[in-house]
TrEMBL record:
<feature type="domain" description="Carbohydrate kinase PfkB">
    <location>
        <begin position="12"/>
        <end position="313"/>
    </location>
</feature>
<keyword id="KW-0067">ATP-binding</keyword>
<dbReference type="GO" id="GO:0019310">
    <property type="term" value="P:inositol catabolic process"/>
</dbReference>
<dbReference type="InterPro" id="IPR050306">
    <property type="entry name" value="PfkB_Carbo_kinase"/>
</dbReference>
<dbReference type="InterPro" id="IPR011611">
    <property type="entry name" value="PfkB_dom"/>
</dbReference>
<comment type="pathway">
    <text>Polyol metabolism; myo-inositol degradation into acetyl-CoA; acetyl-CoA from myo-inositol: step 5/7.</text>
</comment>
<keyword id="KW-0418">Kinase</keyword>
<dbReference type="InterPro" id="IPR023314">
    <property type="entry name" value="Myo_inos_IolC-like_sf"/>
</dbReference>
<dbReference type="InterPro" id="IPR002173">
    <property type="entry name" value="Carboh/pur_kinase_PfkB_CS"/>
</dbReference>
<dbReference type="InterPro" id="IPR029056">
    <property type="entry name" value="Ribokinase-like"/>
</dbReference>
<dbReference type="Pfam" id="PF00294">
    <property type="entry name" value="PfkB"/>
</dbReference>
<protein>
    <recommendedName>
        <fullName>5-dehydro-2-deoxygluconokinase</fullName>
        <ecNumber>2.7.1.92</ecNumber>
    </recommendedName>
</protein>
<comment type="function">
    <text>Catalyzes the phosphorylation of 5-dehydro-2-deoxy-D-gluconate (2-deoxy-5-keto-D-gluconate or DKG) to 6-phospho-5-dehydro-2-deoxy-D-gluconate (DKGP).</text>
</comment>
<keyword id="KW-0547">Nucleotide-binding</keyword>
<dbReference type="InterPro" id="IPR022841">
    <property type="entry name" value="DKG_kinase_firmi"/>
</dbReference>
<keyword id="KW-0808">Transferase</keyword>
<comment type="similarity">
    <text>Belongs to the carbohydrate kinase PfkB family.</text>
</comment>
């Protein structure tokens, strides 16, 4: 089964949200207290997805706000260097700083992220800085959930969604739930459900859909799709970590993607690499089942490497892994 996009557009995908800095532990398999060296990469879920899809050959653009500092300039240079259109990345003039994410790799199974996101420039994107002429040039608007956590970024994203819908641009909502960005779980559920109900495609982990539904215990995928298919979405992708992922189409078809065996270095970056390759495949006209394979293969490559953005694979690497067909059977 294929998913249809408006073919007649200059951009395949425009992402909106944060473009930040990841500082990944160079000495790993130890707690961060004992890590003395960190490597710098561009980070932030929607930036990672734009980078991954641009490296795979999609024409990508980005809407966001960068700090007027060395980090902001590094991000802009890296993103334009991998082919992303940065013309709608505005520079903050009020002294807000770039968001930082320090990663801790205690073991392949035990990884965490320490984020510095107080007053970060990306959350100051204003609705007046979202341009209809730009959005209407794309097949897809990719929205990241964290950008909904604070105003004025929240209103900027809500405006981008209504402009996308007006101009027949598919809205893809990557839940990207970071609990510490939000005041409380009820607030998250209000905005997540509002946006999910208006989106065409929703992608997230089981835990992220639980946050959307304001559940304190694990929900089930059937209930989630019964709810979302009463609204705009016609494709819902639910990820279950190493157990793989499911794509549910409103027409009733269900597809499963298995994870591929790999030597895991760290677990973060899985979701962003998955989304970029899944969307690349879908937008390139591959069927949903194949797109799940692309997402899973890309994620298994990125979890074996040091970064989330710089490690995004090529089409050849992804197809090579799919060809080997060494899947993980759990669950
Ligand atoms: N240990 C692993 N080995 C191989 N593939 C994996 C592993 N963990 C996750 N994946 C792949 O990555 C996909 C996305 O993983 P997951 O469900 O953990 O997303 P996520 O929580 O959004 O990731 P992130 O940790 O980046 O936030 C899975 O569906 C699976 O295909
Ligand atoms: O999304 C972030 O802000 C941090 C990411 O760049 C980081 O690499 C990660 O968590 C990916 O899942």
């Amino acid at each position: 089964m294929n998913y249809k996009f408006n073919e007649n557009r200059e951009f395949d995908i425009i992402a909106i949200g944060r473009a930040c800095i990841d500082l990944n532990a160079v000495e790993y398999n130890r707690p961060m207290e004992e890590t003395m060296t960190f490597s710098k990469y561009v980070g932030g879920s929607p930036a990672n997805i734009a980078i991954g899809s641009s490296k795979l050959g999609l024409k990508a653009g980005f809407i966001g706000k960068l700090a007027d500092d060395q980090h902001g300039r590094f991000i802009e240079q890296y993103m334009s260097g991998v082919g992303i259109d940065t013309s709608n990345m505005v520079v903050d003039k009020e002294g807000h700083k770039t968001g930082l994410a320090f990663t801790e790799i205690k073991s392949p199974e035990e990884c965490s992220i320490l984020m510095y996101r107080q007053d970060v420039a990306d959350l100051y994107l204003d609705q007046s800085e979202v341009n209809e002429e730009y959005i209407k040039k794309s097949k897809v608007l990719l929205v990241s959930g964290t950008a909904l956590s604070k105003s004025p970024s929240r209103e900027a994203v809500l405006k981008s969604i209504s402009l996308a819908k007006k101009n027949d641009v598919k809205v893809i909502f990557e839940l990207d739930y970071r609990p510490y960005s939000w005041n409380n779980a009820e607030e998250t559920a209000v905005y997540y459900s509002l946006v999910a109900e208006q989106s065409d495609v929703v992608i997230g982990t089981r835990e992220e859909f639980d946050a959307l539904e304001n559940r304190t215990t694990e929900g089930n995928n059937e209930d989630t799709i019964n709810y979302l298919f009463k609204h705009s979405p016609d494709l819902v992708v639910i990820k279950h970590g190493v157990e793989g992922s499911y794509a549910y189409a409103k027409s009733g078809e269900v597809f499963r993607g298995l994870a591929y065996k790999t030597k895991v270095l760290k677990t973060f970056g899985a979701g962003d690499s998955y989304a970029s390759a899944f969307l690349f495949a879908l937008i390139s006209g591959k069927d949903i089942e194949t797109a799940l394979k692309y997402g899973s293969a890309s994620a298994s490559i990125v979890v074996s490497k040091h970064s989330s953005s710089d490690a995004m694979p090529s089409v050849e690497e992804i197809e090579g892994l799919i060809e080997k067909n060494e899947t993980i059977s759990v669950g």
